[in-house]
Specification:
Layout: H1 9-12, H2 28-34, E1 37-43, E2 47-53, E3 60-62, E4 68-76, E5 86-93, E6 96-104, H3 109-125, H4 130-140, E7 147-155, E8 160-166, E9 169-175, E10 178-182, E11 200-203, E12 209-214, H5 227-230, H6 234-245, E13 256-263
Antiparallel strand pairs: 1-2, 3-4, 4-13, 5-6, 6-7, 7-8, 8-11, 9-10, 9-12, 12-13
Helix pairs in contact: 3-4
The chain binds manganese (II) ion.
Length: about 270
């Protein structure tokens, strides 16, 4: 939300805490108790982002090197419709950890069919490098409207990231203290596939962060600078980026999705077996 923020987060998370005269007993304390994963990020004057994940597989991926990564995101349909034409997914295959985001042409059910087909094909192609994954996606999406697709693949052995995108999808990577845009190639996966897809190769480090997003996110969005935020669950980072790119006065004009890949910065994360 764009609210005032929670002055005392620790107190607000305690069972029994309420700011109302009469409480339903369904506050944040209850949410923490019944969630399999819970995260809250609140800044005075900026607002609050809360994530509660229920009965979902753990999203921490342990690489052979012991290097952990976390992935997450948010998918907001236009006008709170039943379908979003966007999809994102991640798949692990050996040392390859691939994050994909697909924006089906237009919006509604047929756009969702295209981006869902991209997710299905990703599960079959995750052992391949990014440009070949995109080629396989092009074949799989031929019977659909097509989609704009970004594929980012981290080699968890070499700590190199490969990025390739076709169509209007956005990506930015944080290395050190600066953010760098990653450029997609013109075309439509499943309809007008380019003859050659350039792949950008980048070094990946413990302070890196990758953001993929559909064009529903205003192009002049500002990457987060708060290092406290960057340690939160990637879904919270993604939701905060979406929140800060808009306002109640500027509603979404398209399905909007944001997906984030980050090293696991939680204390002890690099020793824990998952
Ligand atoms: Mn779009």
């Amino acid at each position: 939300d764009h609210g005032p923020g929670i002055p005392d987060v620790a107190a607000a998370l305690r069972d029994g805490y309420t700011t109302a005269a009469a409480s339903l007993g369904a506050g944040l304390g209850t949410c923490v108790r019944i969630s399999s994963a819970f995260d809250l990020y609140s800044v005075r004057g900026r607002g609050t982002v809360v994530m509660a994940r229920i009965d979902q597989e753990p999203v921490t991926h342990r690489a052979e090197t012991g290097h952990h990564h976390r992935l997450g995101g948010i998918n907001a349909p236009l006008a709170q419709a039943a379908h979003s034409g966007d999809s994102f997914a991640w798949v692990r295959s050996g040392p390859r950890l691939t994050l994909m985001l697909a924006d089906g042409l237009g919006h509604g059910a047929k756009a969702a069919t295209a981006s869902d087909a991209a997710v299905d094909e990703l599960h079959r192609s995750a052992h391949l490098p990014p440009e070949q994954i995109l080629r396989h996606l092009d074949g799989a999406l031929r019977t659909t409207r097509g989609a704009a697709v970004a594929v980012a693949q981290l080699d968890t052995d070499t700590h190199r990231l490969g990025f390739a995108g076709v169509g209007n999808v956005g990506a930015r990577i944080r290395t050190g203290d600066s953010w760098q845009p990653l450029v997609s190639h013109p075309g439509i996966v499943g309809a007008h596939f380019p003859a050659r897809v350039p792949v950008q190769h980048l070094a990946w480090s413990r302070d890196s962060l990758l953001v993929l997003h559909s064009d529903g996110l205003p192009s002049r969005w500002t990457p987060p600078e708060d290092t406290d935020l960057l340690g939160h669950d990637p879904a919270v980072v993604a939701a905060t980026i979406l929140r800060d790119a808009g306002s109640a006065a500027r509603p979404l004009r398209d399905d909007t999705s944001v997906a984030v890949l980050a090293p696991d910065r939680r204390a002890g994360a690099h020793d824990r077996r998952t």
